[in-house]
Please model this.
Amino acid sequence: MDINELRANINQTDDELKKLFERRMETSADIARYKSEHDMPVLDRSREREIIDRVTHGQSEEMAGYTRVLYNTLFDLSRSYQSRRMIYPSRLPDEIEAALAATPKTFPARATVACQGTEGAYSQIACDKLFSQPSILYMGTFRSVIQAVDKKLCRYGILPIENSTYGSVNEVYDLMKRHKFYIIKSIRLQIHHCLAARRDVPLESIREIYSHEQALGQCSEFLERHPNVKVHICENTAIAAKLVSASGRDDVAAICSGGCAELYGMHIVSDSVQNNEHNYTRFICISRDLEIYPGASRISLMFNISHRPGSLYRTISKFAALGLNLVKIESRPIPGRDFEFMFYIDLEASVYDSAVLNLLAELDADPEPFVFLGAYAES
Model:
């Protein structure tokens, strides 16, 4: 047979498979209605194992492996198809719809906002870009920012969550597991670091450098070129600048923004000391209550999964079945539980989509821990 005849055989087989697949999915929908009426879960592992055993019986070991992959994919598609036709015992869709109705149509221009650090910090710069007239409360730690929001000392808080060069801000992710809040907006801020000192001194005279751990990581290549300089970690780049400006010493410097150096009357010893010129940090704006503003096109979730082979894949496949794009997935260890992880996901999706709401309800109804962190726009 030539290639055209072989391809004709494939086409004929595909047409037959398509009809059989449609029939299988229609039957899955009937099963979904039955399960919903009889309060049965979508997932039935014993039934899936029974099917796998039956269809691989008599096959070669190689072909049985391919068949298992095929049927596990079919199971994922069937569960997703069934899930869209079932009603889950979750209050989350109602909470989201209530937030959509209660949230103002425009993002507030004025608000009391908590930021970590002091005047000149990157969090403050992000805050000024999000709000045109913010009243800022400066806090000592990221935890203090969250606590200020939780105790209603302010309406919102600003937190850095990830950097394009140095990666995630792990402390913030870990705080997400222990505190309840919602993300209502995010912003990507381009970060330009400089090395600043009290006076206009040569770089060779600097013996010590102060900055935040993230900033130091983003400038690791610059620091490697000066191995004899001692590095000190501070709570914030602005706090580092403030400390150096008040030190009375000319052999110490801070890695901070150019605006921060100007604010504290410092001189730039070396400009653009970050590893990458395209260096961005994402900041999130958090609130105690769920607020969803028009234009929200990103959803953030946090969940745990069972410690079994394929568990993460089965969860991710639910998003894939709806054609949803995952723009971030992050795992963080769960304290006190060996090799178990909490997963953080960002996806491009709208809560106005009923299929997305139903998927969120399905995840929320699952016995595994699940947290809806918010639906928001990113600027």
Q: What stands out?
A: Residues 93 and 357 are 6 Å apart (CA to CA). The two ends are 57 Å apart (CA to CA). The first strand starts at residue 110 and ends at 116. The mean pLDDT is 91.
